[in-house]
Amino acid sequence: MTDVERRPDRSPVPAGWTYAPAPESTEIVSLRERYGLFVGGEWVSPRSGEFFETISPRDEVPLAQVAQAGEQDVTAATEAAREAFGAWSTLPGSERAKYLFRIARILAERSREFAVLESLNGGKPIKEARDVDLPLAAAHFFYYAGWADKLEYAFPNRRPKPLGVAGQIIPWNFPLLMLSWKIAPALAAGNTVVLKPAETTPLTALLFCDVLRQAELPPGVVNIVTGDGRAGAALVEADVEKVAFTGSTEVGKAIQRRLAGSGKKLTLELGGKAANIVFDDAAVDQAVEGIVNGIYFNQGHVCCAGSRLFVQESIYEPIVDKLKRRMATLRVGDPLDKNTDVGAINSRMQLDKIEELVAAGRAEGAEIYQPPCRLPEKGYWFAPTVFTNVAQSYRIAQEEIFGPVLSVLTFRTPDEAVEKANNTPYGLSAGIWTEKGSRILWMAERLRAGVVWANTFNRFDPTSPFGGYKESGFGREGGLHGLEPYLAFDA
Ligand code: NAD
């Protein structure tokens, strides 16, 4: 340990600082009282006749009524997509690109409106919706627009062809961003789409229909059907050539079983329990920032969250001390306040799941730390939490919590770090903190994770493929790899 690390940190803990409220206005968003389904370029009433309420998790206030699509509704949407496929798939790639560029530009222009709505409906801090979700969503459309007329070059001598209709199902943690990850490559490759957003966060997908109209995308190329898992299950069964699913491992497995032998193409982006590994030569303050970003970003509702922290034994104490001090500076509260670092938990159901796993952590003998913070009375909240004294067998070290809860474990050697990091059914992502380049490469080669970050965490780029191993799924989104699952090849 260096002297600097041994010396006590004398900087004041700014937990007591008070910040004036800096609320983002919601005036820019205008919501309808009730939303139908977006099929064939039109808003249609659900044949099911069913609607459900979508709320804001920060105060449980209802925002709008949203349609629950039934089987007939999903069939109507896939038929509209099939009808649109002929013309869309035979458009020159450069023409398809124009629409994608238009969508990207409109998203960028309307990004404040989308960011506010994303924060309102999902509970994420406005600064994250504004600075991460929206720029990345637009960047995905820009990126795939660039490939639409270059598919022959992307896959030389393989004669790429679109598949047909893609059924896409997404979760609630990055609603618009997951929509972009799905729709942009599908359209660039010449497919048409039926997408189902998650039931707790349908509003930005519904606002996106307005963008499609503004971009004059031909009717039926993108159809949006809302509803819960029943609508998702109907979409899996429907007449589609490809299913792309992002969500829990449990539902992903059920979909894989359902589609076995059907000939439909499938990609699954599922859960994770990432290891964030800190070696004793790491830049400690940067590592602490990376740990915080790794687990408290988006309330930990992140499939690739660094939820298992592995610290080399010799620096365990300074890291944990600094981490706790840093946690005390996190501002938890109204997602629409521009100062907020940790917003609301997405739903009552998710809060119950987090509470249950945290109770299990305590019961199994782990030591809990939560910084003092005043949580709002209404809405769904959970304080940033760290568990120390965690054994690998504890549920909090094995199961995906999908909340702001970190489990700290230790290791002595790189071999031990690899063995412990890989001791999980998941394999989505990992982080390595060390100043030694050769160690980064040595570790990255051995970690069973689709994405490995070095001296950073939770960094995304549309050009870079993302996806998992083992129970984290298969198939990649982003980059050229993300186009491939939407294409058929002659050779
Ligand atoms: P979930 O599986 O409950 O739901 C995901 C989506 O599937 C929702 O739209 C839901 O309505 C739908 N669905 C539910 N049951 C279905 C069924 N039987 N058939 C078809 N569709 C069905 O997951 P969630 O709770 O919304 O999301 C959290 C999970 O998503 C976490 O496990 C997280 O790790 C994972 N996730 C993974 C990635 C990734 O890229 N790997 C990204 C984000 C989230």
Give the SSE layout:
Elements: H1 3-6, E1 34-35, E2 37-39, E3 42-44, E4 51-56, E5 61-67, H2 71-90, H3 93-109, H4 111-122, H5 126-147, H6 151-154, E6 160-162, E7 165-169, H7 175-188, E8 192-196, H8 203-214, E9 222-224, H9 229-237, E10 242-246, H10 249-259, E11 265-269, E12 275-278, H11 284-296, E13 308-312, H12 316-327, H13 348-364, E14 367-369, E15 385-388, H14 395-398, E16 405-411, H15 414-421, E17 429-433, H16 437-446, E18 451-454, E19 473-474, E20 487-489
Parallel strand pairs: 1-5, 7-8, 7-10, 8-9, 10-11, 12-13, 12-17, 13-16, 15-16, 17-18
Antiparallel strand pairs: 2-3, 4-5, 6-20, 11-19, 14-15
Helix pairs in contact: 2-9, 3-5, 4-5, 5-7, 11-12
Bound molecules: nicotinamide-adenine-dinucleotide.
Mean pLDDT: 96
Span of the ends, CA to CA? 56 Å
Tally of alpha and pi helices: 16
Q: Major beta sheet, specifics?
A: 7 strands, mixed
The main sheet orders its strands as 14-15-16-13-12-17-18
Strand content: 15-25%
**Uncertain stretches:** 1-7
* Strand-pairing-aware structural class: alpha/beta
Q: Give the overall shape, derived from the CA principal axes.
A: globular
List each distinct ligand once. nicotinamide-adenine-dinucleotide
What fraction, in percent, of the residue positions are helical? 25-40%
Radius of gyration (CA) equals 23 Å
Number of E-state strands = 20
Oligomer designation? single chain
